Amino acid sequence: MRTVTVRKIEIGAGRPKICVPIAGREEEEILSAAEKIKASPADMAEWRADWFDGIFDPERTRRVLERLRNSLGELPLLFTFRTSGEGGEKEINVPAYVSLTGSAARSGMADLVDVEAFAGGGATEEIIGEAHSAGVKVIASSHDFHRTPSRGEILSRLVKMQDMGADIAKIAVMPQSRKDVLTLLSATEEMTSEYARIPVITMSMGEMGVISRVCGETFGSAVTFGAVGRGSAPGQLGAGELETVLSILHNK
User: Fold this and answer.
1) What positions constitute the catalytic site (predicted)?
2) How far apart are CA 220 and CA 201, in angstroms?
3) pTM beyond 0.85
4) Which of 29, 48, 138, 196 has its CA 20 to 30 A from that of 160?
5) 46 carries a ligand binding annotation
6) Low-confidence ranges of the chain (pLDDT < 70)
């Protein structure tokens, strides 16, 4: 399996990297969050652009990207517009989604972009192509806030993301039982040991799935998401808590 290097961070090697989302409505709130992330144990930051009230104004969006890039320095920046169908804050049609994410990739400010693997209409492949032309890495993602698919379905989705040309494959699911958490972890281990040519990110959401956010080095998940202030998904731990637990597990 090849790793992905973004600035000074190698994703897919060693302990899972900590990514902290920025989920703010206003520009100054977003920039304030970035400053706090710089002072945290985060390895990378994710701008959850669907939270931003001005996201459909190209000039305002570019200005925020520029200010985030300047603020974060060498900390890698992941651009994500999470659609409402996968738990995001705003609705968006496919052409607008392609345009917005493609513009972020071409901006020179984002190091990675998140692309929903099942956006439809050829959107995923189009954005992957644009991002790679701009030298930007792509995380293909799939989110299910209602259930945990079967192990076979989880594997199928991750393999499809890999075959699409993504640099990293990500899936987040909601457990309804402890067995669901085991299903996610089992699928992660099988994917990384048998099929993966790229790093994978997996998580079981909610309080029941917290264990999946700290045991990635054992089962194969390369990145875990933690909060500094407002989180962006159920079950996120604080970045400081993640740092403590991951350090203990890594050094055992």
Assistant:
1) 143 (proton donor/acceptor), 170 (schiff-base intermediate with substrate)
2) 8
3) yes
4) 48
5) yes
6) 230-235, 252
Measured CA to CA, the distance from residue 161 to residue 70 in angstroms comes to 31
Q: What distance in Å separates the CA atoms of residue 105 and residue 133, rounded to the nearest whole number? A: 9
Cβ proximity of 221 and 16 under 8 Å: yes
Distance CA 126, CA 10 (A): 26
Beta-bridge partner residues of 170: 141, 201
* 176 annotated binding-site participant: no
Residue 236, marked binder = yes
Contact predicate 21/34, CB 8 Å: no
192-216 pLDDT, tens digit each:
999 999 999 999 999 999 999 999 9
Segment 31-45, tens digit of pLDDT = 999 999 999 999 999
